[in-house]
Amino acid sequence: KILIIGANGQLGTVLTQRLQEKWGLTNVIASDIYPSDNFIGKFEILDATNFDGVQKIVKYYKITQIYHLAAVLSANGEKDPLKTWDINMKTLFNVLEASRLNTVEKVFFPSSIAVFGDNVQKELTPQDSILTPATVYGMSKVAGENWIRYYHEKYGLDVRSIRYPGVIGYQSLPGGGTTDYAVDIYHKVLNNEPFECFLKNTTTLPMIYMEDAIRATIELMDAPNANITVRTSYNLAGMSFNPEQIAETIQRLYPDFEITYKPDFRQLIADSWPQSIDDSCAYKDWNWTPNYNLDSMTADMFNNLKRKED
Ligand code: VAH
Fold this sequence. Notes:
Layout: E1 2-5, H1 10-23, E2 28-32, E3 42-45, H2 51-61, E4 65-68, H3 74-77, H4 81-101, E5 106-112, H5 136-155, E6 158-164, E7 166-168, H6 181-190, E8 195-197, E9 205-209, H7 210-222, E10 234-235, E11 239-241, H8 243-253, E12 259-261, H9 266-271, H10 280-286, H11 294-309
Parallel strand pairs: 1-2, 1-4, 2-3, 4-5, 5-6, 6-10, 7-9, 8-12
Antiparallel strand pairs: 9-11
Helix pairs in contact: 2-4, 4-5, 6-8
The chain binds (3R)-3-hydroxy-L-norvaline.
Residues 73-74, 112-114, 137, 165-167, 177-179 line the site of (3R)-3-hydroxy-L-norvaline (VAH).
């Protein structure tokens, strides 16, 4: 039985559907802090900062895998630093303890390129870079990576993790990330609205299309235990682009689309992040390779967003 925590989130929404397809509706328990309208499948209201709440579900359903996808993201997280730290860490501790003390065999913990700070190689950032993140969200992911390695070393818990780049998808709206301009831009085009970008036109960031991000997650979790040599979190690369480049791919299809740039506090966060990622460990250990580039992502985004509107 699979438990997804944060099933209403940007990743959780899509991963839940994919896990239902893979394991069957009755074997997947989706959960979040608030209900999800017209959800198909098993759903539990769960505040994962409450240990008893997490353990109750793990015991009742005899959960064997947990995907912990609940967190306060980078930009939103800066509004209340100590609350962000508390939520991101307490939920992880509850997942790790409820897993160790019960039937859970595998745990997935999402990390992020937000773990990297100013003092790393910005191009093809190495897997074993020094981690001095600029945001509380990034700090909570660095701490989380060390805690999951600790639970693997001390208790033998099979916890696996990916440092996601900015994730772009049509299935869900993002919540408070620094890379979310690249999701919002597609919605603005289809609403015939001009787009004001909160990052500079030249801000290149590592990104990944939702289809690739979800496939990477499943492929990592399906890989033989012996192949996993990284027990903090795997670097993962999809593509890299800046606002000017994504606007160009869009203007090829929508010539009248207009973009203006009005950098805000999120520019400082983006400037502290890498421009591209070296994901050779993911390739070596579990054959990772992305399928989507900026053009094929843009085509797929519009095909699906327009279908949703029809
Ligand atoms: C954020 N979308 O912006 C998330 C992600 C790499 C970015 O961590 O916070």
